[in-house]
Amino acid sequence: MEILVCYWGGNYIGTVSIRVARDLPWVDRRRYKAFSVPALTFVVDTYGEVYMRRMMCKSKIHRALLTGADVNYVGSITIDRELMDAADLLEFEKVQVLNVTNGARFETYVIEGARGSGVLQLNGAAARLGVVGDLLIVISYAEYEELELSDGFSPKVVLVDEKNRILDTGRRMQDIPPLEHLTA
Questions:
Q1: Which candidate in 109, 117, 141, 144 is catalytic?
Q2: I want to staple 164 with a disulfide (CB 3.0 to 4.6 A). Which of 25, 46, 47, 118 is the partner?
Q3: Known catalytic residue at 73
């Protein structure tokens, strides 16, 4: 397997075989080094082995209803704590928000809402990107090593009803059935 290493310390390196990476002069044997190209991260361990990490969808809350929009609040998206737990989201974690109703896409961070409230509220400038009743998809991402992806990786998907109550979690994305209230 070959990987393309674009730059290291400002110098073009070229194509590097994973197995011969230990012989490269730029490998610091005292510690790990990492370098990146768009959407990929390469880590070099103390033995010079190169590991590629990929940015993947970690979890998503699928087509939830927007319950509020407060332009005077200090930024972010407020999400019901129960939904946060189901989607493995932490407070202040970066998320991408997709508004299915109007096509808007943006990034923000999560603020914890009351558990069981069903709240999904856009705050600050993001509040201008949706109105109550819009369908939203909230996606979180994480970096994974190739080995973590080899056993049929699939993100955690949280399906909700029209009141943002959890219907199902943990399904593989390709196994999600169409839901009546989501197709309107």
A1: 109
A2: 118
A3: no
Q: What is the rounded radius of gyration, in angstroms, for the C-alpha atoms of the chain?
A: 20
Average pLDDT over residues 34-41: 52
Q: Give the whole-angstrom CA distance, residue 43 versus residue 45.
A: 6
Given the structure tokens 């974690």, which residue do they identify? 93
DSSP E strands in 27-134: the ranges are: 33-37, 40-44, 50-65, 68-70, 77-80, 94-99, 105-113, 120-123
**Rounded-to-integer distance, Cα 94 and Cα 115, Å:** 20
- What single-letter DSSP state applies at residue 181? G
Q: What is the mean pLDDT of residues 132-161?
A: 90
- What's the rounded Cα separation, in Å, for the pair 108 and 41? 22
In degrees and rounded to multiples of 5, residue 148 shows phi and psi of -70, -20
* Strand partners for 54: 40, 144
Mean pLDDT value of segment 85-110: 96
154: annotated active-site residue: no
Inter-residue contact 159 to 135 (CB < 8 Å) = no
Written as six digits, the tokens of 33 are: 């080094």
Token output for 182: 């989501």
Residues in the chain: 184
pLDDT above 90: residue 116: yes
Q: Burial of 184 by CB count in 10 Å (0-12 exposed, 13-18 middle, 19+ buried)? A: exposed
pLDDT at 153: 84
